[in-house]
Automatic annotation (TrEMBL):
Limits of the SAF domain: 63-126
Keywords: Membrane, Transmembrane, Transmembrane helix
Organism taxonomic ancestry: Bacteria, Bacillati, Actinomycetota, Actinomycetes, Streptosporangiales
Annotated spans, Disordered: 1-26
Pfam family, one: SAF
Protein name per UniProt: SAF domain-containing protein
Length: 228
């Protein structure tokens, strides 16, 4: 004999039994959105790692060097207030002075006008104040056209020759006139008159002759082979 199942009668609140709660059916979150957030997180972590690597790598490439803290005119002796140390990324081709040489630099003189903020380079400093004994320093004002196009720099050896107007290059006859050998100490200009002022160091017996020759008429400067 087959028995038929009879459904249980509905339970009522009055019977003291609480019916089971009916949970709402929540829509499933799309997987595409979750993958997008995961990918974004990976990119953020990777980007932070790359940034940290370059930051640390950049710091390791920085070296301590000397820097000028304030303007120092030509010939003035450097004090502890004129230079300090700093960290910079310096290319191998740039000549700088290591920070460990700070004590040695104090007491040296500026070979050129130093400007605050510039890195100290060996050629900018000197332990000798020119002119030395037996030398004289003569300023000579010349037109830029009477100087080498490549320019002059301190330490260059030159010949000073008379060069009247309209005669940029001395002729054979003019070359027979006395020439004075000199060493360039400083070059400045052009001034308000368009002239370059070249400070020349000459033998102590030729200073007056060079000054008189420059006052009499235009001169030109011939650059001798540069010293290596």
């Amino acid at each position: 004999m087959i028995r038929k199942s009879v459904p249980a009668p509905p339970q009522r609140a009055g019977d003291g039994v609480v019916p089971p709660a009916q949970l709402p059916n929540l829509p499933a979150q799309p997987r595409q959105r979750r993958r997008g957030w995961l990918l974004l997180g990976v990119l953020v972590v990777a980007g932070g790692g790359v940034l940290g690597y370059h930051t640390v790598n950049g710091l390791t490439d920085r070296v301590p060097v000397l820097v000028v803290t304030r303007d120092v005119p030509l010939g003035q002796e450097l004090t502890a207030h004129d230079v300090t140390t700093t960290l910079v990324g310096v290319d191998d081709l740039v000549a700088t002075v290591p920070a460990r040489e700070l004590r040695r630099v104090i007491g040296m003189r500026a070979a050129v006008d130093l400007v605050g903020g510039m890195l100290v380079q060996p050629k900018l400093l000197t332990d000798r104040l020119t002119p030395l004994g037996g030398q004289q320093l003569v300023p000579v004002a010349v037109k830029p056209s009477r100087l080498p196009a490549r320019g002059l720099r301190p330490g260059d050896s030159v010949l000073v020759v008379a060069a009247p107007d309209g005669q940029a290059v001395p002729t054979t006859k003019a070359a027979a006139t006395p020439r004075i050998e000199a060493v360039v100490d400083q070059v400045k200009g052009p001034d308000t008159d368009g002239l370059m002022v070249v400070d020349l160091i000459v033998n102590g017996t030729e200073g007056a002759d060079l000054a008189a020759r420059a006052a009499e008429g235009p001169v030109a400067m011939v650059l001798n082979p540069r010293r290596t």
